[in-house]
């Protein structure tokens, strides 16, 4: 049953802190695996429905979660769990010398053995993010952060294009696919690396990726950021056309990726003020809301086509969460009431339909009208990194009541 909450609570520091605690409690009850790392497949009530399979994205995001939980809450067990997750990441996922992708991290592991030894830039970006956050609580060194960045440079960076390629197959050969998603998360990881180490090169790379994807490669008519590209970095609208089952490379314009880029630009703006980044973030936010907000049911849809028509009207947890963070940062930076209203409207819809008030955490996906679609609260890749991260980012942006 949905717990009633006054709108003013969404702007309260105490509310956000309580919600973070409630979300973490869901994972604290059953996710810890004493044999290594954490379980990646949890049902609505927190019970584990798959014990042996591990995914690089979840493994790294758990390190992110527990590291920030310790930074913000100071509990020793959260630091211990970040260390536990980091140890398993290195032990289970790191590809050994002699492998074509040696030094990079495998995509999936089953029963302690590498299952999918492709190296995806998306996953490697999250390794850098995890190490950067671990560095901030003394669990990783600046040298380890630098090594993770260097591995991405060597394996994926294309200097002439000022962007990262996407995938090295099991044989170590780069695929022809190019995409924005891995680059967006590398931008996020570089911002975190800068904050962890103070080394300007990480902020420079984040700024370069912002310029490349939010400005140069954006659609010249709509201003939106495309998902998929060919070798020449021209939009590829045939890639995954008609498919809805690839959560890392979905077709169409992604509502949440427009606002996630907006959030990253605003984070970068806070570190190195650039009026054009602030203005561009506002443009992306308003476009995402215009195309993505469901006027009938509320909430932000998953994706829409190049003509602006809805493509996937389901409501994903991460889309709402990222948009909460970008809306709040825009409200703080511009004082424009429309962004504050977006923040309040997004929270109200999510609180009614996506937050599990009984067991904790957020449901992964619901139908357009908010109806339940599945009982798998946290499958591979989720860990509530987006929802927890949004709350921590809102706290970092400030301006909240007590």
From TrEMBL:
- Read off the InterPro entries from this record: 6-hairpin_glycosidase_sf, 6hp_glycosidase-like_sf, AGE/CE
The GO terms describing molecular function are: isomerase activity
Per its UniProt record, what Gene3D superfamilies does this chain match?
Answer: 1.50.10.10
What keywords are assigned to this protein?
Isomerase
This protein's superkingdom?
Bacteria
Mind listing the GO biological process terms from this record?
A: carbohydrate metabolic process
Per the record's keyword annotation, is Nucleus included, yes or no?
Answer: no
The answer to keyword Transcription applying to this record is no
Q: Record's family? A: Belongs to the N-acylglucosamine 2-epimerase family.
The name this protein goes by in its record: N-acylglucosamine 2-epimerase
**Naturally occurring in which organism (per UniProt):** Malikia granosa
